[in-house]
Amino acid sequence: MTVFMKFRTALAGFPRLALWIVAGFLFLGLFGPWLVPHDPLKQNLLAAGQGPGLVHWLGTDHLGRDTFSRLIAAANTSLVGITLVLGIALIIGIGLGTLAGYRRGWTEEAIMRVTDVGLAMPSLIIALAMIGIFGTGYWNMVIALALAWWPSFCRVSRAVAVGVMNKPHIEALRVMGASPLRIFFVHLLPTTTGSVLVYATADAGGPALSIATLSFLGLGIQPPTPEWGQMLVDSLPYLEGDPRQVILPGLALTLVVVAFNFLGEAIALNRVPRPLGRRLLARRRAEAAAWGRPPTGLVTGEKA
Amino acid sequence: MLGYVTGRFRNAAILLVLASMLCFGLVVSAPGNVAVLIAELRTPGATFAQIAEIEEELGLNDPLPTRYWHWLSGVPEGDFGISYKTGEEVGAAMARRLSVTATLLGGAAIFACLFSLAMGFLGALRPHGVVDGLTRIGALIGASTPQFFLGAMLIYGFALKLGWFPTFGDNQGLRSYILPWITLGMLPGCVLSRLVRVGLEEEMTRPFALTARAKGLRRNAILFRDALPNVAPAWLTAFGAQCTAMTVGSVVVEPLFAWPGVGAMFLQGVQFRDFMVVQAGLLIFISFFILLNLAVDIAVMLLDPKLRRQGGR
Amino acid sequence: MNAVYDIRDLTVDLYTRSAAVRVVDGVSLSVAAGECLAIVGESGSGKTVMSFAPIGLMPEGVSVGLSGGAQLAGADLIGGEEAALARLRGREVAVIFQDPMTALNPARRIGSQIAEVCTLHLGLKGAAAEARALELMRLVGISDPEARLRQYPHELSGGLCQRVVIAMAIAAEPKLLIADEPTTALDVTVQAQILDLLRDLRARMGMAMILITHDIGVVANAADRVAVMYAGRLAEVGPVDQVLRAPTHPYTRALIDAIPRPEDPVGSPFRGLPGMPPQLAGPIGGCAFAPRCPRATPGCATLRPPMRAVAGTPGWQAACHHLTLAVIPKGAAA
Predict the structure, then answer these.
(1) What's the CA angle centered on B192, arms B188 and B198, to 5 degrees?
(2) C25 phi and psi angles, rounded to 5 deg
(3) How far apart are CA A128 and CA A142, in angstroms?
């Protein structure tokens, strides 16, 4: 099977709508900045507070900036942010987790203790504390959130690593003389990375919400760079008169997070088989009916 | 069992000490010179001499352990130092705000608890049916909606347009509690409802559910009397985690509804880099988390008959 | 015939995502009051489905199609509503399961689980239900019942758990007791106790019993009649003594043959049966056992053998084309 077809069957079990939304988000996030009809940063006080129209499809905010363009640009901000946070968190988490699963013993104990503490703390608190001490700023936010997210990746990769280490082929590799480094990088790491990546994509909604929440609090993405949470808080004072500017960024964010969460649920496979749908059931019934039944009396054998 | 409980308390105490060290360590590693900030606060355009004076006064030149002990010994009396921004006593300010935050958290937690049990159970009554599908989608959307967005929408719809509730403040009695409670409790409630729904479905596939059906019990009765008690420990653990998350959520919800709580004060501390406030808030939050985990651990142990007899092992 | 449980040409089709499967294919049996019928077969022979499907005890989410006739104490089971079936369960028919430790709810006390049945079917509430639960526990031989009332399943041994399950089953004095491999998960010594208990209760209450098992020893010990199933069909049914001593169906014969005997020399190979049972799918043409049968002839693969009486003994039948040709087994009634 070609790579494309393999990809398609792999995605076959997933809810279509969610996939499309995520694809849309990725597309807009990547190419949005080149596709926007207006400059998202350009203010025009004369055109402030407009409703949807021909020029500004979704209207303008209180500073006259085109809302549609800002929403799309914010997708880019989100995507970059999520990628950075997850990327750093994955590197730390997978690295430490695989190491813990590989070495066991004291190393594992130490790493997992720290992981446990990290898991017990809500992500936002760590970010808030760090921003409170070290100040706002893009990289402060990214690093703070990455520090909040790595523990869960660490735990998953350790579990996977332990599972792989228990498999017979690792023992065989050792006997054949493979060096520890080789086992670690060639055999362990790819497996743990693969598992955790799947888990991480399902979890992508989390950093999206955190970035938006921090921006809402004025501690994340600073204006004028557009970001959904920040757009929402900027428009909050005008809620009564122009709710649109609050609703639109909120909806955009919710939509993307819903899509990611939907995918995440689908990934956590249903362990209980669901009953057959009506059509399938009818088909099976017809199948069985076509067999007929054994003629009566054939098998009752009452009298010889 | 007593051994388990005392062990848990001991762990919690150790964690509390570690947390205090963490909070302290975080603040002393802050860039910049605190003495400068305070000097500016007292007399703009302070001189080096004044700054040095303040450094002595605050004990900034003492070795770290001394400073740590100095700070820690003040905590039990509620002395968390002076806010660098407002100059008032942090401890006293926090104490005033505790009851506000407690009201917010308590109500939201109860809402999340009842909501999750109701939604999850409703869905499980007829698996894969219409109600189940609707509650599933509803829970998914609810778990993905940012709390600040939900709050803004609730304010717009029910306070501004319909006028049923005040748009902000906590001084109009029960009416002013409703929207903040829902805003804070909805997301955790939806997350927990998924857990209940999936958990119930799993429990219904277990052998004891078949036994119950063989006894002649109806499905709904089995769901309630047999499946639900088995879901309880997992739900309780998750509920504890969600309460932790809600505590942090107060940092968003309190400013949104203009409630003068600990979260709002902590947020201001972070926004203005008021280290003493950040330190105090962090310590209060983390201590609360540790105690909450302790309570949940003990409750789960009491709930699960196997753990109860074996003393928690 | 005062049959408590009577099934005629029962056919059970299982509807799965990939295909429809015929799990039970035209089985007819009956059990009289006070009688114990053992149903023997390998895993996948349909013995459990045959007993559970008519009373609506298939696992959650599994779709089945039932046809034929099934009657329990005069009531029609096929085509009945779930509500009607639920009313029969526990009251007219009760079930005891293979693994007693998991059959009980780990989060509830023993007393509560037994009393629940008393409340549901006997209308007893509170203290009265508890009293009846104590009675039942004594009846099934549980020592120190007052203490056991408040205990949880994980505090009891396997044998004790099984007694609790039995107590729950007989609470409403059902007419039929279905025992699905009740001793498989227990120690050998406990097995004998449980079987004795079941026989005792049967005699006391005049209950009919269906005993599903793959253990011939249990059959010999506890059953009056035995039915042998293969690939969802009935191979042979008859009085235990006759069938076990002189099996007529080749499959039954192989089963009995396979049991090691004291006179076998040490180190001799097992007398197994070559091949595997057929993968269940649609109905099998001809005799299901033909591919593995030493007696098979070409005709066996095309024509399904009807149940024929054996050697003129009433109640003894086997489904084999070559019955009449087989040598009359020694020891059988003339």
Answers:
(1) 155
(2) -125, 90
(3) 12
The answer on pLDDT for A4 being more than 70 is no
Residue C281 φ then ψ, to 5°: -150, -120
User: For residue C12, what are the β-bridge partners?
Assistant: C24, C66
CA atoms in the 13 A half-sphere facing the CB of A94? 21
- Does C35 map to a domain? yes
Determine the Cα–Cα distance for residues C137 and C123; give it in Å rounded to an integer: 18
The stretches of chain B forming alpha helices (DSSP H) are 2-28, 34-42, 48-58, 64-74, 90-125, 130-144, 147-154, 175-204, 207-214, 219-222, 228-256, 262-271, 275-303, 305-310
Of A123-127, B19-23, C183-187, C208-212, give the lowest mean pLDDT range: B19-23
Give C324's pLDDT tier (boundaries 50, 70, 90). low
The ipTM is 0.88
pLDDT in tens, B37-90: 666 666 777 677 777 777 777 667 777 787 788 777 777 777 777 776 676 777
CATH of the domain at C218: 3.40.50.300
pLDDT at residue A113 tops 70: yes
Instruction: Read off the pLDDT band of C170 (50, 70, 90).
Output: very high
Q: B169-179 burial string, b = 16+ CB within 10 Å, else e?
A: ebeeeeebbbb
CB contact under 8 A, C155 and B218: no
Is the Cβ–Cβ distance between C199 and C134 less than 8 Å? no
**C195-234 pLDDT, tens per residue?**
999 999 999 999 999 999 988 889 998 999 999 999 999 9
C165 CB neighbours in chain B (<8 A) are 211
C28 has a chain A CB within 8 A of its CB: yes
- Please indicate, yes or no, if residue C58 is contained in any of the structural domains: yes
Query: Rg (Cα) of chain A, in Å, rounded?
Result: 27
Contact by Cβ (8 Å): A152, A203? yes
Q: For chain A, how far is it from start to end, CA to CA, in angstroms?
A: 60
Tokens encoding B220: 């709904």
B225 to chain C: which residues are within 8 Å by CB?
A: 108, 116
Q: Is C95 helix (H, G, I), strand (E, B) or coil?
A: strand
Both structure tokens of B50: 């004044």
Chains that touch C (3 or more CB pairs under 8 A): A, B
Residue C264 DSSP one-character state: S
- Mean pLDDT of the A222-251 span: 89
Distance from CA of A284 to the nearest CA of C (A): 5
Range of the domain at C153: 3-223
Spatial contact of B23 and B286, defined as CB atoms under 8 Å apart: yes
**ω before B305 within 30° of 0 (cis)?**
no
The DSSP H or E segment spanning C4 is strand C3-15
Average pLDDT over residues A137-142: 90
Is C238 within a domain? Answer: no
Q: Residues B195, B234: contact at Cβ < 8 Å?
A: yes
Q: Tell me how far apart the alpha carbons of residues B92 and B95 are, in angstroms, rounded to a whole number.
A: 5
User: Is pLDDT above 70 for A3?
Assistant: no
- The pLDDT tens digits for A29-70 are 888 888 888 887 888 887 777 788 777 888 888 888 888 888
Is C105 within the bounds of a domain?
yes
Count of domains for chain C:
1
**C-alpha distances in Å from residue B56, one per residue of B51, B79, B295:** 9, 19, 42
Neighbours of B143 (CB within 10 A): 21
Mutation target vs B (from C49, C57, C60, C164; most B CBs, 10 A cutoff): C60
